[in-house]
Amino acid sequence: MPVVSGSQSQPGRSGELAPLRTALRATGDHWTLPVVLALARGPLRLSRLRELLPEVSSGVLDRQLQRMSALGMIARERHRETPPRVELRLTESGLELVPVAVALARWGAVRAPAEDLEPRAGNLAPHAHGRRADLSRGRSSPGASPRAPR
Questions:
Q1: pTM higher than 0.85 for the full model?
Q2: What is the spatial distance between Cα 54 and Cα 2, in angstroms, rounded to a whole number?
């Protein structure tokens, strides 16, 4: 089955995956989709966005917003007031990402609980079908428990 609908090429061909790789380069970092979800309900002041994303430092968030602005995902509106006020909003391009971010969040909530994706002692990694692969021993078992570090 082709990755991109309407494509006549074989699955996995380099050209067929190029749009996916492009999308992942634009959105696959740690904060783009959380910012999209935070702005999905409407424009926010920068201070409110920081409150909604307390895990990200101000510097990292500022760089992320600059990147998203340069990619055309968000727009900044500066109001000439005292004190100065800046509101951030999704552009048309950013709004197109909302259903993608919502779908990934739903998938993550159901299929990939955060505790299963965290690095653990014993080099455990997520594995298909609810099994975890114990990479240090080269085996997979249901509910493989982490080994204590040596």
A1: no
A2: 40
